[in-house]
């Protein structure tokens, strides 16, 4: 017998490249979900990963950084918040 | 009067014709005594009727002197005479079983009384008696008749008689008989018998003519029948115009209402063809008692014929919808509906598949009677959606009126009678149950569609949004968007799209064209049961390539494959035939194993797939049922490829698995799974308070769970969850409550 697979329709789920159970440090919503001001997850509501290894929904963090009291610090570790460059890899 | 009758009476009263013989020996009336004697002699009842002689007429001129005396004597005389001759004619020994004899008996009484009246009143016509005296005599006569007649017996016989000679069809024979009774002062009795008979005949007419005639209004026909047949005959029999038509109509409406009330369930089932009948009932219902009876009998019919395990849920929902519309015709205020719909609603709520049926109806998925829901959804859309929460009285409503007086306590205004969907949705406290069901159905449909076609789903979603609101259906929105997005990603990964990725070297150009994927946002889809097994290596390579491509395309994101979901098109080339199938991934993976080894045991399949044995076995069974694999026969759990089709293989015998077999959790499972969020609250309260009954846990959760994500589960869902916890040995049942297992 010869089995010829003509078409394979697979299903997958996507997730952000962070540990699956982690939630946004600001809105406490799952990264794979949306920040409170967004409707659609994924492209519309990206996440941002800092050099300090803390991740947030981008919108959540931007809102925080707009506040004067934030002084540009990461809300978790109070270090100046800098985004991780494209090629850098998070070390956990 | 007939000849027969005359012969009976000849012996008593002889002919009724007047004879003008001179009675011998009359003295000239010289004084009052003599005159009295002359009159007495002339008046004394005889077998014949005599015209007065001149002497008598002369004697009558003295009448005023001895009027009282004469009449007292005459009254005694006629009584004696009546008792002697007439009374025996009025009695019979027993009730006549035979209709003919009974009729003869009635006629005999009528004739006797008629003749008696004629004879006894004959002399009085020649005398100028005062009115008082005449009345007095008349009363004596009537009293005597009444006293002499065996009344209850006579009354029964009279009714029997009318049953034999119906008022409507046979009234002409009865007219002279009735008249005989009338002159004897029996009008009341006869009228009563006639009235009772009329009602009986009306009942028969209604039953025979109108049973199960719902397509036309019968009221008009009934009224004209009443006027032209029953009333006309009755008037002829009674010999006068009367006011009874209104009474008869009232009774008739009651009878008709009764008939229709008993038929109501069938009428409702027959809706809308039976609308005229409903209008009729509406006119027949006048008193609260009748309305209560409608409610009662309909409820009993419902319990007996609808609300039992044998009835299909679709049928119950259809019947419920019909009930709503039918009762809104009967009683536009909605009081009756509120009363009768309660048991149906309670029952529907208990049924497990109600939500599914309603949802399927709304989406028009299967071709049931519930398609009306889909039509309503597409036609009316948001017509009713606005005030779907408006259960409190609207203070600005100028047309507001108080609840009807007979409304039950929790009566709600049913202003939206045609809002079928609304009334079904209101079965449950919140719309979440429906939304969850929608999510499952949409998930199944979207995953089943092979070409990323979302048009149909989008249309449905838009319609549903009008009804349920945008926010509630956000999940569906995202699911549809996921599929659309997947299409874009898929085509760009296959190099069909030009927009992204100009450097062709970075594109995984070796991606096989037959491999397509759907990429889902996991939080917004139903939970997927994890079913681990290995897919064929070549496909796995493709999937890995696909993942790499995706990671390039969408920075920072990764894919996780759900191997058990999806569909596969395979072609099997066997020695004598080639077969095409669309199968599930696990079925494809299993048959792929047999490509390399035509003979495998269940254990080998399980090991190679790294799957649970029941999954492997189910897939093997599928192929056995398709005639591709075959039980080895001698060795247990060993299967071989059937290279040459066997004539008599049990091709259709096996159990063919349905496609997406439980790939997606059922709503029930999912909701229990989601309930685990509240587990910590439950543990907390049970630790502090010991054992607690279900309803207290429910109300505590309502209170305790923070309001930004409020607790909206129903008590039933909570119970399911708690029972699950009992099964998992986390909880135990104690008395009427639950407590933590130590």
UniProtKB/TrEMBL annotation, chain A:
Involved pathway(s): Protein modification; protein ubiquitination
GO cellular component, one term: anaphase-promoting complex
UniProt subcellular location: Nucleus
Keyword entries, A-Z: Cell cycle, Cell division, Metal-binding, Mitosis, Nucleus, Ubl conjugation pathway, Zinc, Zinc-finger
InterPro entries noted in UniProt: RING-box_E3_Ubiquitin_Ligase, RING-H2_APC11, Znf_RING, Znf_RING/FYVE/PHD
Domain RING-type: 35-78
Family per record: Belongs to the RING-box family.
Protein's name in the database: Anaphase-promoting complex subunit 11
Taxonomic lineage from the root: Eukaryota, Fungi, Dikarya, Ascomycota, Saccharomycotina
TrEMBL record, chain B:
Keyword DNA repair in record: no
Organism classification: Eukaryota, Fungi, Dikarya, Ascomycota, Saccharomycotina
SMART domains: APC2, CULLIN
Protein's recorded name: Anaphase-promoting complex subunit 2
Keywords, in A-Z order: Cell cycle, Cell division, Mitosis, Ubl conjugation pathway
InterPro entries cross-referenced by the UniProt entry: ANAPC2, ANAPC2_C, Cullin-like_AB, Cullin_homology, Cullin_homology_sf, TPR_ANAPC2, WH-like_DNA-bd_sf, WH_DNA-bd_sf
UniProt family annotation: Belongs to the cullin family.
Cited Gene3D superfamilies: Cullin Repeats, Cullin, Chain C, Domain 2, Winged helix-like DNA-binding domain superfamily/Winged helix DNA-binding domain
PANTHER family xrefs: ANAPHASE-PROMOTING COMPLEX SUBUNIT 2
Cellular compartments per GO CC: anaphase-promoting complex
GO terms (BP aspect): cell division; metaphase/anaphase transition of mitotic cell cycle; protein K11-linked ubiquitination; ubiquitin-dependent protein catabolic process
GO molecular function, one term: ubiquitin protein ligase binding
Domain Cullin family profile stretches: 424-624
């Amino acid at each position: 017998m010869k089995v010829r697979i003509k078409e394979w329709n697979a299903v997958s789920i996507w997730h952000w490249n962070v540990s699956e159970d982690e939630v946004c440090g600001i809105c406490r919503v799952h990264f794979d979900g949306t920040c409170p001001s967004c409707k659609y997850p994924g492209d519309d509501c990206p996440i941002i990963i800092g050099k300090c290894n803390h991740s947030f929904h981008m919108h959540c963090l931007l809102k925080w950084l707009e506040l004067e009291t934030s002084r540009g610090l990461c809300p978790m570790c109070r270090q100046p918040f800098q985004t991780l460059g494209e090629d850098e890899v998070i070390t956990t | 009067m007939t000849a027969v009758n005359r012969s009976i009476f000849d012996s008593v009263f002889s002919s009724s014709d007047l004879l003008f013989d001179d009675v011998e020996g009359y003295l000239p009336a010289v004084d009052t005594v003599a005159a009295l004697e002359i009159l007495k002699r002339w008046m004394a009842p005889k077998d014949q009727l005599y015209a007065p002689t001149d002497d008598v007429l002369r004697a009558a001129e003295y009448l005023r002197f001895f009027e009282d005396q004469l009449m007292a004597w005459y009254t005694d005389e006629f009584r004696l005479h009546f008792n002697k001759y007439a009374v025996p004619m009025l009695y019979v020994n027993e009730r006549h079983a035979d209709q003919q004899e009974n009729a003869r008996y009635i006629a005999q009484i009528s004739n006797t009384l008629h003749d008696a009246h004629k004879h006894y009143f004959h002399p009085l016509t020649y005398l100028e008696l005062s009115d008082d005296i005449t009345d007095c005599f008349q009363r004596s006569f009537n009293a005597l008749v009444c006293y002499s007649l065996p009344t209850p017996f006579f009354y029964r016989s009279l009714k029997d008689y009318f049953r034999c000679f119906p008022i409507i069809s046979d009234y002409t024979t009865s007219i002279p008989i009735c008249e005989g009774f009338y002159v004897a002062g029996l009008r009341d009795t006869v009228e009563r018998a006639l009235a009772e008979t009329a009602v009986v005949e009306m009942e028969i007419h209604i039953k025979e003519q109108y049973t199960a005639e719902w397509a036309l209004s019968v009221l008009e026909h009934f009224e004209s029948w009443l006027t032209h047949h029953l009333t006309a005959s009755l008037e002829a029999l009674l010999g006068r115009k009367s006011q009874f038509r209104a009474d008869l109509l009232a009774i008739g409406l009651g009878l008709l209402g009764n008939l229709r009330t008993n038929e109501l369930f069938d009428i409702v089932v027959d809706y809308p063809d039976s609308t005229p009948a409903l209008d009729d009932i509406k006119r027949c219902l006048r008193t609260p008692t009748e309305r209560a009876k409608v409610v009662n009998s309909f409820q009993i019919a419902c319990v007996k014929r609808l609300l039992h395990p044998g009835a299909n849920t679709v049928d119950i929902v259809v019947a419920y919808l019909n009930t709503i519309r039918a009762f809104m015709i009967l009683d536009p205020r909605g009081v009756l509906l509120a009363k009768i719909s309660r048991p149906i609603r309670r029952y529907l709520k208990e049924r497990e598949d109600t939500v599914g049926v309603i949802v399927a109806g709304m989406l028009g998925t299967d071709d049931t009677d519930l398609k009306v829901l889909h039509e309503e959804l597409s036609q009316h859309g948001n017509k009713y959606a606005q005030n779907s929460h408006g259960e409190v009285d609207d203070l600005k409503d100028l047309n507001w009126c108080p609840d009807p007086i007979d409304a039950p306590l929790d009566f709600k205004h049913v202003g939206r009678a045609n809002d079928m969907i609304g009334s079904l949705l209101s079965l449950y406290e919140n719309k979440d149950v429906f939304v969850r069901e929608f999510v499952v159905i949409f998930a199944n449909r979207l995953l089943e569609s092979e070409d990323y076609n979302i048009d149909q789903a989008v249309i449905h979603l838009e319609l549903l949004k009008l009804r349920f609101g945008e926010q509630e259906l956000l999940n569906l929105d995202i699911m549809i968007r996921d599929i659309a997005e997947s299409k874009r990603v898929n085509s760009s990964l296959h190099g069909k799209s030009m927009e992204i990725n100009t450097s062709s070297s970075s594109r995984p150009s070796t991606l096989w064209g037959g491999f397509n994927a759907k990429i889902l946002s996991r939080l917004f889809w139903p939970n997927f049961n994890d079913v681990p097994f290995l897919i064929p290596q070549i496909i796995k390579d493709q999937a890995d390539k696909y993942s790499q491509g995706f990671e390039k395309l969408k920075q920072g994101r990764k894919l996780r494959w759900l191997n058990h979901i999806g569909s596969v098109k395979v072609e099997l080339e066997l020695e004598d035939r080639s077969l095409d199938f669309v199968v599930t991934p696990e079925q494809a993976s299993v048959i792929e194993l047999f490509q390399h080894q035509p003979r495998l045991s269940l254990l080998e399949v399980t090991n190679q797939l790294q799957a649970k044995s029941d999954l492997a076995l189910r897939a093997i069974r599928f192929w056995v049922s398709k005639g591709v694999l075959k039980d080895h026969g001698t060795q247990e759990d060993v299967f071989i490829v059937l290279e040459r089709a066997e004539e008599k293989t049990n091709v259709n015998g096996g159990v063919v698995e349905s496609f997406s077999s439980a790939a997606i959790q059922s709503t029930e499972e999912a909701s229990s799974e989601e309930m685990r969020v509240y587990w910590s609250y439950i543990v907390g309260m049970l630790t502090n308070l010991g054992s607690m009954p279900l309803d207290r846990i429910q109300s505590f959760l309502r209170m305790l769970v923070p309001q930004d994500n409020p607790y909206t589960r129903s008590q039933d869902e909570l119970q399911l969850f708690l029972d699950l916890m009992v099964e998992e040995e986390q909880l135990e049942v104690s008395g009427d409550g639950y407590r933590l297992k130590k």
